[in-house]
Amino acid sequence: MTKVETSMTRRVPVIISMVCAGAFALSPLSALAADAEGRFAPRGIGPVSCTQFLQALEERQENVFFAAGWLEGYLTAINQFLDDTFDIAPWQDTDTILNLVRNNCERNPDQRMFAIVNSMVEFLSDQRLQAASDRTMVEHGEQRTLIYRAVLRDVQQELIDKGLLEGTADGQFGAMTRTAIEQFQQEQNIAVTGIPDQMTLWLLLGGGTTPPPQGG
After folding, report:
1. How many domains would you assign to the chain?
2. Residue 123 half-sphere exposure, CB side, CA atoms within 13 Å?
3. What average pLDDT does this structure show over 88-103?
4. Which three-class secondary structure state does DSSP give residue 91?
5. Region 47-62 average pLDDT
6. Among 131, 66, 128, 142, CA closest to 98
7. 42 and 121 share a domain?
């Protein structure tokens, strides 16, 4: 579920004064339309350097909303134009996406935002949802999250492979799946919510052994 919401009617200030940064060469996961030499003009925060981007996030909360909206729009375009892609980020919420970008920017302060985001898309491509999938609301106590059934099946399969769940991955959230998730969360020393929250999904499906990067 997206934690950072944007409004089409909200007037959000531009992050910084945009500086012409030239054109970026296309990679296989970039936009599918460009000029004859494979170049195109990035818009919004695309031409901004990571240093400028990070400074802008620290200066004004409105800039976080602006950046989140730009990222969501970029990923929506990827979903539309990238072959065999229904959702490039099927379980990562906006906070996780923004923190991935922030973390990579901190490591590469001289890079332009478009290059950082494009690299993130390449990282996410192996985890993308290639075909449409229904969503289901998973609830336990006061905890809840909306998740694709295909992602839930992946979660169950990971738990089966780890010996925490018996049976088959059917995309149904029941007591056995909840118990297996709780056991996994206990083993990882993270909050025991009983649902596939962002931290749990990161550790199960994100290929990471440490929690996802958190914003400052």
Report:
1. 2
2. 15
3. 93
4. coil
5. 92
6. 66
7. yes
DSSP assignments along 31-88, one per residue: -S---TTSEE---TTTTSBHHHHHHHHHH-HHHHHHHHHHHHHHHHHHHHHSTT-SBS
Tell me the C-alpha distance between 135 and 149, whole Å.
6
Residue 85 and residue 31 share a domain: yes
CA 162, CA 143: separation in Å to the nearest integer? 24
Comparing CA positions, the residue from 176, 180, 170, 164 lying closest to residue 136 is: 170
Residues 6 or more apart whose CB falls under 8 angstroms from that of 171 comprise 136, 149, 150, 152, 153, 156
Q: Residue 164 corresponds to which amino acid?
A: L
Q: Tokens for 176, please give them.
A: 């056995």
- The contacts of residue 135 (CB under 8 Å, 6+ apart) are 146, 147, 148, 149
pTM of the model: 0.79
**Which range of residues forms the domain containing residue 197?**
135-205
Whether residues 35 and 68 fall in one domain: yes
> 92, 125, 158 — which closes off a domain?
125
Position 16 pLDDT exceeds 50: no
The residue ranking higher by pLDDT, 74 or 26, is 74
Q: How many CB atoms lie within 10 A of CB 119?
A: 17
Last residue of a domain, one of 125, 150, 184: 125
Residue type, 10: R
Tell me the residue ranges of DSSP E strands in the chain: 24-25, 39-40, 135-140, 143-148
